[in-house]
Amino acid sequence: MNNKKIPVAIIGASGYTGLELLKLLITHPIFEIVYIGNSEGEVRVEELHPSLKGVLSQSVLKSNAKEIAKVADLAFLALPHKTAMGFASELLELGVKVVDLSADYRLELDTYEAYYCKHTDKENLQNAVYGLPEFYRNEIKNSSLVANPGCYPTAALLSLLPFCDLIDENFPIFIDAKSGVSGAGKKCTPKTHFVSIDENIFAYNPLMHRHQPEIAEKMRLQSKKEFDINFVPHLLPLIRGEMVDSYMLLKDEGVDAPSLLKEFYKNERFVRIYDKPVDIKSPSGTNFCDIFAKVEGKKLYLNAAIDNILRGSSSQAVVNANIMFQLEENLGIPTISYVP
Amino acid sequence: MNNKKIPVAIIGASGYTGLELLKLLITHPIFEIVYIGNSEGEVRVEELHPSLKGVLSQSVLKSNAKEIAKVADLAFLALPHKTAMGFASELLELGVKVVDLSADYRLELDTYEAYYCKHTDKENLQNAVYGLPEFYRNEIKNSSLVANPGCYPTAALLSLLPFCDLIDENFPIFIDAKSGVSGAGKKCTPKTHFVSIDENIFAYNPLMHRHQPEIAEKMRLQSKKEFDINFVPHLLPLIRGEMVDSYMLLKDEGVDAPSLLKEFYKNERFVRIYDKPVDIKSPSGTNFCDIFAKVEGKKLYLNAAIDNILRGSSSQAVVNANIMFQLEENLGIPTISYVP
Amino acid sequence: MNNKKIPVAIIGASGYTGLELLKLLITHPIFEIVYIGNSEGEVRVEELHPSLKGVLSQSVLKSNAKEIAKVADLAFLALPHKTAMGFASELLELGVKVVDLSADYRLELDTYEAYYCKHTDKENLQNAVYGLPEFYRNEIKNSSLVANPGCYPTAALLSLLPFCDLIDENFPIFIDAKSGVSGAGKKCTPKTHFVSIDENIFAYNPLMHRHQPEIAEKMRLQSKKEFDINFVPHLLPLIRGEMVDSYMLLKDEGVDAPSLLKEFYKNERFVRIYDKPVDIKSPSGTNFCDIFAKVEGKKLYLNAAIDNILRGSSSQAVVNANIMFQLEENLGIPTISYVP
Amino acid sequence: MNNKKIPVAIIGASGYTGLELLKLLITHPIFEIVYIGNSEGEVRVEELHPSLKGVLSQSVLKSNAKEIAKVADLAFLALPHKTAMGFASELLELGVKVVDLSADYRLELDTYEAYYCKHTDKENLQNAVYGLPEFYRNEIKNSSLVANPGCYPTAALLSLLPFCDLIDENFPIFIDAKSGVSGAGKKCTPKTHFVSIDENIFAYNPLMHRHQPEIAEKMRLQSKKEFDINFVPHLLPLIRGEMVDSYMLLKDEGVDAPSLLKEFYKNERFVRIYDKPVDIKSPSGTNFCDIFAKVEGKKLYLNAAIDNILRGSSSQAVVNANIMFQLEENLGIPTISYVP
Known about the structure:
homotetramer, Rossmann fold, Dihydrodipicolinate Reductase, domain 2, 7-stranded mixed sheet, 12 helices, globular
């Protein structure tokens, strides 16, 4: 085995996904953190993330693409959308590969601009690969820019895509999704105040969340069919994890959904098919996507769960990086849950 | 005003809904608790429910229908299904009115026997009234046996029934419901262990929960149409409250769902129509059902929340009792939330 | 019974204690809310507190002492310290009685200025009465300015004061206190972010919290002895409630602490003495202070729990107002817990 | 490096500490799980612990000492006290080393029998070593029976022992401890029901918990002085973690407690000294014990936190096993927190 280290940078180390990237890469056998950046710099990692005291004491720098290019072969961008594309274009220009955890390179131009903002890096957008390994593995292998999927789309697509040919596209697909509060980010807002969300649950942006077009677009690209995706996310009183419940009609009766899923994913390490409803905590701390399916007549119910900041973000990003450097896909990727 | 007290009994005082009945009736201006029973007896209320220390020190007796009939005009039955119908038939025979919080008198015979067990009190079943006051007020007034609705059906029906004439019954209605752990009862089971459900969520009995036929039957009875109800409940890591999200197709575009709801419920005290998604905590501690609706083309999204052990059980039971005795419907019924 | 209404104002209606005051006074049989103020005004109550939709739709005004004096006989001030004393002095000058929920009139001048800021209303400070009804009932009766106690001091003093003559003041008293997040206020800060405090607990301001001198001063005033109070508060992952555990030495062995407490509080409605450790949830939603005590040799362990925003703030404020107007102390004061 | 695997058994694989042992040993570079036992057997690991689906599919056997001795060099016993000593004596007789996670070998005979039950393996009890590595490292090295410390004693002793010579033993030490619900075990009881402990906290067994004599005995053995330990544990509404707050008097003023701790533990990998109060979540998922100390005059406040089922049980057990086999102490021992 060739143990030569590959130097990587983490840009945007202050947030939850930045922290998860740090935690994953500290123990990664090949990737080596050589640069940690955020928007301010001049702080040590353990000041940003006290739980890393005694584990990592590197300095966090004010992110600078030129400095990064001097030391790193790949950069993980854990930045807000819009900020990300500025950095990405500069880094790519300087020869640094990029895994972008923001939305900036996930969508086709029109969809992006309709739901986010004007795109300022259309050239790279054209070459970006959507980083859902089970479906884009080969493209990722040869890419220097991978757009890491949104958290909800990850769970939604992994459960929906195997059924594309069987779903009746004349009927809407209704997705009722639930996310832990880490999905709302580290910013202190009335919504993330403990007293607001503890012992509570509420829907937000019903039928108008930005992940709706992401799910629809990828289903269209994979199947060459248009699906009517209707997405209602909820905030849950818990930290980590995401559940995506999808309801739809199949063209025909008699589909054996569990067997179909088991067959479809039989060679995938990071998808588990369950015979009873999944829970949000079993994949917590891991890169697994857990899926349960049930059919009644023509009706299909899909029930998927992931760790929103791992499979829905940082660990999937590291899987993508593994693939980009022809490493084993599961190198340094956690499979052991935080349960209990 | 005639302040003459009406003596009532609470049978099944040990569980959560029994406790809520006690709390409601302690402060009720007309109903007076004269008998508190459970299956064991020989205990004081404050031993069963230490939070009532200094508030209520009556004795709890081993429930006995004949003794109840000597002292009470009405009995609330907070018993498991099957046990309830035994008591109810005896009490009715003895001239005691009954509000039954179990499932025993909620359904037509065939449906009941398909989902629960053999029915042993068919005679009374025929005369029982379904205690959803907004829809069965007049029947409740003259009834001596009211079947208090299930918690999920209460929220589901209050949001769905106003749309019966507009919904396209050729397509399924998908209901994604979420309940706090008090809905699973006081019994200690692996599901209700703190470590199992804290930081977690999972679906249970998907597409086969007993509340599915209850919702379907009442919609049929109100509308004379068959709807295909598909119900998936989830357990949430919180104590109190229930959210019911429903997804369906309307026959036509252009329905102004919020206005329709406001008009429909304009004279109802205990239904609130919101212009943004509801949360589970705002109706907590009250008898309110909070509803939000959104239409996109022909698609209708309904989002309702109640306190599962009040509006979904005990406070709705007291409203029914108020109606049965021609009292003001809101007598002793809480409207002030536990928030924060 | 004379049912003549007494008009009152709530100043500072936006926060948690303001909300609790609103909830208590909506149903109070004598006090009538005639003025609701906050620092901004021009908003309806149900916009500030959506859970009150359909219950209270009064307007909230930009607080103005002169306007308040025109309509109200008493004002509850739920304001930050320093802001409170400005309002209080103006209102008292205009003949309005005041129950101040802030710290501004709780302490002797020197202590106040050492722990808070310069005091600008020394005259009224001299006449203010400390609103712990069990110990200052007579003084409250004749006062026009009551300083409502801090939440921790309420639970600490109610458990400690009965033992003043028995405690060995040559040794320190150690108080390990725990509070729900509502005690940290509605402001969105890193500490109150759900992700920070959920599944967590931490001490804050150990041995230097402002409630330490308040406890020490009141013990000195009641006992004419100096006690060495050492106070370490913790933040708990829950919304409502506070537990105060105190550890100390008695002068002698053989003290029967439970009996002493029961005797001491035998005529008090709002103190409950338990024979086993108390929990934080039983008094939740009420004005009770629950206390358990245990002696081992000369060592005394006291364990007290209250609802921090009711007994620790708003319901105690209403008790004080009841006393100031010679009403029954328990008028409109909740005793029925939110359990489950 | 010699990578020869060492075969180990886990007995008592059903509970939380059994699960943690499995999770730790799956990824341990030297120890290899060759035997997994519980009291029933005939089940696969992923049935007992569904979160391990796809990770470990070994069979769980009905524990049998003779079978274990055929395949394993060491057994971890995650059994109830009393059951443990039966197994341990048999295994030791058969030449298998034992790390016992129960209380059976932690205490001197008299103390054990006073607080637990009759001891049936006095011979091995005499030779058992207390597995707190920072203090008993050398004894552990040469032992074949290590008694893994209790969770509370681990955090209490690590914070208290450095101060033994400075503490005034004429004054009691008061320990106010707080534990997550995993500490109460997997058994479904009224205390562990979600509705009982969510939004709640309560003390249990105040001044009479079995961990009190364990702390006292080890302090005496280390210091040759008698300390008066007074221990009050509380149950917290969270899953994982434990905080131990200790209050005491020092003989003299002027002690620089933080510096003393930093010096004392400067060569220890698994103890972190903080300059501000610790939280329960930062060491969660790791073997760290986090400590903060503050002195006021002669008063000392100690504030320690650990993961109760890792440092307080399973990861400390693996550290002990590492030492028993002369491996690096940190081999396979987690240091990266579950935060957020």
